Amino acid sequence: MSSRSNPMTAVQKKKPVSTTRKKGPSSKSSRTSRKVQPKHNRSMSNWLRNVLALIIIVCFSTVFYYFFIRPYAYRWQTCNGRKEYGVCIPCGYDIHGIDISHYQGKINWDKLLLNKDTDFPLHFVFMKATEGGDHGDDTFKTNFADARNHGFIRGAYHFYIPSTDALKQADFFIRTVKLDSGDLPPVLDVEVTGRKEKKELQKGIKRWLDRVESHYGVKPILYTSYKFKTKYLDDSVFDAYPYWIAHYYVDSVKYQGKWNFWQHTDVGSVSGIGVDVDLNVFNGTLEELKKMTIK
Question: What's the predicted TM-score (pTM) here?
Fold first, then answer.
C-alpha cells in the first residue's frame, strides 16, 4: 500500500522534530567549575613543592653541618685556656701525645721531634699495628722504630673486629708487636658492635684482653668512646683496665669513671705530619706515665 493512500504514514511524516534542548546545568556554570578546579590544584601543587623544598634544604643543611662544619667548629670557639696545634688545649694537663696510622702518611720524625720544645710538648705516640685477624698497618713497623729512635714513649693498638675470632685477633697482634721496656701497654680499640649481642661482644673482648695480658704480663689499655663504654662495656670487669677515652669537641671529659688518656680531638695540626692528627692528654704526671710502661 502506498504512503499517499495511508493516512497514518502521512501523519508520521509530518510530525515535527523538537529543536528545544533539555535543560541541564548551564554552560556558564560548567565553564566556571572547570576554571575553579585547576586553580585549586595549582595551589595544592605549589604548597607541596614548597614543603618538599624546605625539607630538602633542612636535610642538606643538617648533613653539611655534621660532616663539614661540626668537626671544625671547636677550632673557632674562644679557648678557655690556650691554643696549640690548631685547637683549644684542655686545661690542667701537662702530658700530651698523638696517635697515628697509615692515614697520616709518611711522617717527618725530625720535625715531629721539634714539638717537644713547645709550650705543650708531645711525650707519647700511639700507633695502629693491626686490625681484625690478618690486616696489618703498613706504616707500623717504620713508625714504631722511629718513635723509639726519637725519644718518644710509644704504644701500639689493635682495631677490634667483632665478627672475627677474638683469639685469632689477639695472636695476630702478638705476632706483629714486640713490646720492649719503656713501651706503653698494648691497646684494644673497640668502636663497633658488628651486630653482636652485648654479652657476646663483651665475651669476645674479654678473651682478647686475657690472651694479650697473659703474653705481655701487663693489663692492656681499653680504648673506646665514653658513649660506647657506658652502653656496651658497662660490666664492672672492664673497669679494671686502664681506660683511654675518646670524647671530641668538649672542654672537659663527661665520663664519671676513672680514665688515663683522653683523645680530645681528631683535627690537630702537628709539625712533621701533613694531615690532621688525633691529640691526646694523659691524666697524670710524666712520672706516672712512665710507671705505666712495661718494665
Answer: 0.77
